[in-house]
Amino acid sequence: MANQNSLHLTYREATHSDYDAVMNMASVDTFRDGFDYLPAKFHQWVDDPDVIMFVAEANDKVVGLYVSIITDGGANVLSKTIRIAPELQGKKMQSKMAAELDTTLRHTHPQLWKLEVHALSDVKRLYLTKVFPNKKDICFIDVMFFQGMSNEVLDSLETKDVLPSHPQPPVVPYQPSDMARLARPEFSQQILVDNTIFVDWDPYQLSASNLRLFSKQSATILVDTSEPTAKSLSFGGSYMTPRGRLYHVDVHCRDVALCQAHIKHHVGRACHEYEGMITFCVMLIDPCLKATSKTFCVERLGLVHLPHDHRYLYFKYQNPELDPSQSRL
C-alpha cells in the first residue's frame, strides 16, 4: 500500500455489508482492552438515523471508520470513535483522516456543523486533542473493570452482609416522577458537572427526554429517594464483546455508601439475568470514590479486578467555518 502521505482515501456511509471488512480492520480484539462495543452496535448504528457512520477506503479496501452520534434531541453531536487499519496507524494518519472526514461531513451532513461536538479522550493520548479548535475541557471520568462468575457473585450477595452500612435513603428503579428531584438545580450543581450524565461512557445532558430514551433502550436506571433533591443516579446495560459479556455500571454520586449501593444493585441484577462470566465496567464521575469502590467490588462482591483502569477527559469544541469549495466527496 502507498505511504501515508500519498495515500488517496475516499469516504462513504457504512452499510450492513461492510460488517466483516470493518471488524477485520477495527482492532476489536484490542480496542477497549478487547471489550469493544463495535461488534454489538454496528448493525444497530447502520439503521439509526441519529448515527453518522462513514468508512474510508483505499484501493477498494476499508481502512478506516468514523462514527458520530447526534445527541440531546439534535442539540449536540458526539464524536464516538475513529478506527484506522493497523498498517496505517499513527498520529499523522489519524489527523489526515479526521480532517478529510470533517470536510466530507460538512457537505453530506451540513446540519451537523453548527452543533457543538462532544468527545472523550484517554488521558494517555491527550496529544490527539490538540487539533480541535476552541476545545473546552469539562471533566474526567474513571473506568475500572471487574470480572466474576454470576453464580459465585450471587452466592456472595446472598451469604454475607455486602453493604457495610445501609445507605439512607435507599436506591430504587427510576420512575418518570423522579425527574422532578433530578431536575432541581442542586442535583446538577452538587452531583454532576456541566449537567452531564454518562451512559456506557457516552456524555448526554440530563433531561427527561434522554431518560425516556435510555429506558426505551432497556437501560437499567437507579436513583435514590432523597427529598427534595436526589443525591445519586446510575445506569446499567449489557452487550457482548470479543471477550464475552460486558455489563456497564455508570455511577453519578459523591457519597461512598450510595455509590456502593448502586454498584451492588447493578451487579446483582446482571448476575440474575445472565449466566457465566460477566465483566463489569464501572464508571465513576468522582475520583474520590475510586479506591473505596475497587475495594468494595473485590472484598464484598467477590469480583476480580482486571488491570485495565482508564481515565478519560470529556471535552467539547465548536467546528470552524469552512470554504464550501473544499470537498472530499
From TrEMBL:
Chain ranges of the N-acetyltransferase domain: 9-169
Domain of life from the UniProt record: Eukaryota
GO molecular function terms attached to this record: acyltransferase activity, transferring groups other than amino-acyl groups
Entries under Gene3D superfamilies matching the protein: 3.40.630.30
Pfam family, one: Hisat_C
PANTHER family xref list: LOC100145250 PROTEIN, N-ACETYLTRANSFERASE DOMAIN-CONTAINING PROTEIN
Protein name: Probable N-acetyltransferase 16
Organism whose genome encodes this protein: Branchiostoma belcheri (Amphioxus)
Lineage of producing organism: Eukaryota, Metazoa, Chordata, Cephalochordata, Leptocardii
Gene: LOC109487446
